[in-house]
């Protein structure tokens, strides 16, 4: 018997749960603007989230998936990506989408049952939200392959949850990324739950980062509630990706809210667990550090919140004021040109909306 | 006896059968502690233990494939796919293995599994949560595909599905999960599979439907009755194999047929029923067959879903159209 | 100009388009050095390089999903699934994403991909290598499903599929891959999609078919001609969307229709065509529609496959049956 | 940054390519009977294989997948398994199936286009051959779950190829086996090719054994052409499985023949590569060692071959003499009881075979 292969998984953290630096901080942290922009983005996401949940509770939004407590992940992704990169998100990644230029109104439209939310004016090459878990990973491989084929210095960044790592599509994609040395990064939001199934119910592995070992690509674990670590590590992965090394980043976080507004997490998890993770909050952590380093104050905080509240309110207003789509819109982008075969049906649909004068009343 | 909803009837059937037969297992995503995202399996894990009410990893092909392995060992797995929108990755396991295990081993092994999944629109659910793709399974030889439309039939047909020696895809119309209540005695009595249920007798036109659309179809029959038109309403219930005798017999009497389903029109199960009439019931037909179905487009997000789904009005209009022919 | 087979016509179309459009890529299992297990992609990797003619790992969902990513980036992927028996794990990607990318993004992204797969029985292939499950794709809104039945149509329709702005499932009847040769000018001229091809005009009965069964159908027309019966033969070619006008117009003239397909009868594409006649062509029908199809059972291993597949005799018998009605 | 998880993959070999012991041999090698039975089984598989190919070439068998050069893997699996265990084979595993009691005639029937080959009289709980690559892995999970549920000391052994490790089903199954600590073993026949795609085209990993790391189960590499190592390591995995530790065994071998009789491997691989691996043949390797240890001679060899030839000939005769199935057999096991809906079709099918007297002639 001889040992023929050895592997190690590393864990990265810069700020601990109390906002204290536990390692030498990356250079970008010297730039208060940059730090404040991360802070602002996380705060915006949280405010948006509260608003979205309120809209849902009052019947003005459909089922909605909250990223509460996981804002650092999306913000770091969005912050490290360049405009020319492509984001392939799942359904809990609007923090990243906002950073990419997707409007809050678009996200509200989507969860409000309107396809136009996926037709955002910015980030035109980014993928729309993917609901079928892990299916988006295969798209990321295709996007990255296209970039490599065209010798473009771009990367594809794909988001997935801890539950999603159990799906075949996730693995098939990692494996292919390894074979072709593609510029792609898979960021796992390990928020410890997949609806009611805990992380331990998904996989017996010590880490999710080690899934990368099965694909021969880079894998590492990062404190997903440390936006500095996340930003640094996603940036490093983007560097590697351009050299042809794909990565898995397991971002350790926690789903502080229900799975979606249709869920009631108290059925399956304890308040103690919530309390434990509340203490690791990404926003208050960065806040502590910013105050410690003197770049942030109570005044800054309230000014920020006022500004953000205005922004969110405007987005909500725009959402609520959006004219509904025509019914025939459901046919209009089915194909580039609607085949003759379906024209009748489109006509029927339109006719069904406008009962002809003097039409029979079947009530 | 209390009245129960369709989803409660599902739970009641599962619990009855698990209590009665140690070989019955439930598996799927969130079926355990959480009792299923629709609460179909609520209380089962507490009562029958985590070994028999199994929360699986998030992996649909595994769920179906594992059920095949369990069934081959003589167990009676009841697998849940959380929404029909996530059922497609199991078609391979169902088509390549579950449906043909008995056939390819000439009876040596078999696959007495039930695959449950909620389906259909109308509850303002998120994207991919509202489609009706039962036709995909109805084209696979060796399967049964069963769809209840009331609490009583949910109970009786699910019991029958669990006792069936062959694989059954059991699709639950989630729009009517909690819509009506009825008394469903918890007596373990199954209802027959492979037969249509005639819910209302009539002589002028035959309305054929299944699942949640039975609601609109019955309402349409009421509207027609007010107009003096007597509509027969048939709940297909088992869409594969199809009980063509009941449908043909009815159309032989009425001469007219409207088929109602939520699924996309083209190549839906309605096509098979209309084909049945064109091939075996032509001489009875006094008017063209009407299909009132989902449009041949992607089920829209929920703002428009009501426009997509067949309405009572559309069913009534279609029936009236068939009656224009003398 | 040399005569070529259907499979050579596929290769010719791929090569033409790859030479003409740098965005065209071929991907799949064994499509590279090996040139495909049926030799459909032979020579392409040598000519266009391994970056554009890609041997993938053995992972079908990846192949389809990756094609979606490539297409979203403006490439024109032509993905091969080695046999239709291994296509089922991609239904999720095709149904949940490829078919609806344009619709769900309101046109922002689209999915101009082609998915090629050989299908059908009759070549004494191993288990799972002989089924015809085109109906599964014909039920998915947003897709096109195209099936050639001759070298010329393989060339012209595949070119059209590769140039189509939307996803096309292109199913190749492998039984006739090498059965006939014909001259197919390599001129890059596409044939229209979405239309039926009337291969033979006739006035007594309409025979409707597609793919490999066109052979038996044409032979049946010959047999019928000997009996003085004039059969029209329609090759559906694009089974989704369906060109109902051509079929209805023909049946309006003949009053009789026989639908021939290899796939399982229940919920096959034949059902949709028969339904079309029951719904929109009823008044033309002078006799019940006949479906000559694969039986509703698992395609048997090859010893019995010839008994399973529709024969010329069965088509002739069905046509004669429709003619018994006056 | 800290290292949070470490992994090692070990490689096992007892006999090197020349048949020399390179490590202390396991106890069972002391028993000449046992060794000879392994040798006999490998030789039988090879003889059968030659015969099957000959039958195919002469039109008496359909497409057939040869295990040439990989006989040690199946023989070791079959030898280590107990009767109460369950084998879940792919299509190249008849060496293992023979050891389980499946008749050569049954395997010929299967490849000869007759379903009855899957209705073997022995090993009734074993799965039939699985052609859809990797799909069988999920079945193995179900079988193993049933064993664990019933507290039976049995294990499920699942066979798969190197190409198969790229499929989602393979990974989903390993992962589930880890979660539930199931008594299941996945043996990868790494014969270096998946039709025309080389091992390197499937995965960038150094080993296939490390796929186990993504599932938190045991993984190791074994010389798959060393039947002693394979037998010992499968036996060890069976032990572990009963303690709730699932395993992946990557058996390093080589596909000496074409993929199937429908393939022509000379299109995509070199004679040099074939020569290199021919020198590692499992049968001649064991033969060398047996002769070295004095338990085998030229006489033994020719006696064995005579006996095996008779056995194979009998099987072939029985195959060729098998009466065809009735046409209606295609309906008879579709369901336990054929639904009324399909009875007509069965009747039509039967009728189509027996043209009624005086029936019309449509020729
Ligand atoms: C393929 C698939 N199966 C099931 C579902 C239903 N579902 C939606 S989210 C979810 C859990 C996902 O958990 P995880 O991947 O950890 O992401 P999280 O929601 O925690 O962000 C499930 C089972 C789905 N969307 N897709
Ligand atoms: C899911 C699936 N895709 C494709 C095929 C076609 N096919 C049959 S064998 C094979 C290669 C398998 O290679 P490997 O797993 O290494 O096994 P080997 O044949 O080398 O024993 C392929 C692609 C299949 N049978 N199943
Ligand atoms: Mg999660
Ligand atoms: Mg191999």
Structural write-up:
The complex is a heterotetramer, with 2 copies of chain A (363 residues) and 2 copies of chain B (326 residues). Chain A is an alpha/beta fold and 363 residues long. Chain A is 44% helix and 12% strand. Chain A is built from 13 helices and 8 strands. Chain A has helices spanning 32-57, 71-80, 94-99, 104-111, 135-149, 168-180, 199-202, 227-242, 271-278, 282-293, 298-321, 329-332, 340-353, and strands at residues 2-12, 86-88, 156-161, 184-190, 193-194, 197-198, 218-223, 247-252. Chain A has a 6-stranded parallel β-sheet with strand order 1-7-8-4-3-2, sandwiched between helices. In chain A, strands 5-6 form a two-stranded antiparallel sheet. In chain A, a hairpin with a 2-residue loop joins strand 5 and strand 6 (197-198). The relative contact order of chain A is 0.15. Mean pLDDT of chain A is 96; it is low at 356-363. Chain B has 326 residues and is of the alpha/beta class. Chain B contains 12 helices and 14 strands. In chain B, the strands form 3 sheets. In chain B, strands 3-2-4-5-7-6-12 form a 7-stranded mixed β-sheet, with helices on both faces. A 5-stranded mixed β-sheet of chain B has the order 9-11-10-13-14, sandwiched between helices. In chain B, helix 1 packs parallel to helix 7 (151-163), helix 8 (213-226) packs across helix 12 and helix 9 crosses helix 10. Chain B is globular and about 60 Å long. The termini of chain B are far apart. Chains in contact: A-B, A-C, A-D, B-C, B-D, C-D.
Descriptive terms for the model:
heterotetramer; A: 363 residues; alpha/beta; two-stranded antiparallel sheet; 12% strand; globular; B: alpha/beta; 14 strands; binds thiamine diphosphate
Give a quick summary of the entry.
The complex is a heterotetramer, with two copies of chain A (about 375 residues) and two copies of chain B (about 325 residues). Chain A is an alpha/beta fold and about 375 residues long.
